[in-house]
Write a structure and sequence with these properties.
By secondary structure, the protein is α+β, with helices and mostly antiparallel strands. It has two domains: about 80 residues, no CATH class; about 100 residues, SH3 type barrels, CATH 2.30.30.240. About 15% of the residues lie in helices and about 35% in strands. It is built from five helices and 15 strands. The strands form three sheets. It has a seven-stranded mixed beta sheet with strand order 13-14-9-10-11-12-15. A six-stranded mixed beta sheet has the order 4-3-2-1-6-5, covered by helices on one side. A two-stranded antiparallel ribbon has the order 7-8. The chain is elongated. It starts with a strand and ends with a helix.
């Protein structure tokens, strides 16, 4: 939220105001504010400070400037871009609140604070960054060209130190049990949760 968004031609578009299921709302200006509802599939890079769109500023202005979010019926299938999850949908998870036997106190982490944080195993290996937070899992992504995805049940989380989330798994166990190529089905989720 409130991160700067730039176009592919490196022009400032505005700041992230809200995140919808298929788009991000970018607000520009102080007095006469402009709003752009950019489909998530055109958001392709985040360097920790700035989010970059794959569109030029002129394209954003022409296609996505409007006063209110698009309705579901207005979104074409091609605009939905569900496979583009650089920015997860905020309503999926209000935050991370868990208490396991290994914790002294309940862990409460706001959603936006935990995304893109490192995940460390008991053998102190960084297995990637948090990509998504679901009801039962955190999804950890490692690599850019050669991507590894880990669907780790929340019950394995043991602590969060502000920069890393620690899980009660060794790196070999994390990859042998929880590394997956695609999102698990409901049945697979069940079996992962019972491991």
């Amino acid at each position: 939220m409130n991160k700067e968004v730039k176009s592919s031609d490196r022009k400032e578009i505005g700041k992230i105001k809200s995140v919808g299921q298929y788009f991000v709302e970018v607000e520009d200006g102080v007095i006469s504010k402009k709003h752009y509802f950019i489909p998530k599939k055109y958001i392709h890079q985040y360097d920790g400070d700035t989010i970059y769109s794959s569109l030029e500023k002129e394209q954003v202005i022409q296609k996505y400037q409007r006063d209110s979010p698009p309705l579901e019926s207005e979104l074409q299938e091609s605009e939905k871009g569900e496979e583009y999850e650089l920015i997860p949908f905020m309503a999926k998870e209000p935050g991370l609140e868990i208490k396991t036997e290994l914790m002294e106190e309940e862990l409460k982490i706001p959603w936006e604070e935990i995304i893109h944080k490192h995940v460390r195993t008991t053998d102190n290996i960084d297995i990637g960054d948090i990509d998504k937070v679901g009801d039962e899992f955190v999804v950890v992504r490692e690599g850019v060209a050669n991507v590894h995805l880990y669907y780790i049940p929340k019950k394995y989380i043991i602590k969060y130190d502000g920069s890393s989330l620690w899980v009660n798994l060794s790196s070999t166990l994390a990859s042998s049990k929880f590394e997956r190529k695609n999102e698990p089905s409901e049945e697979e989720m069940e079996s992962l949760l019972n491991q």
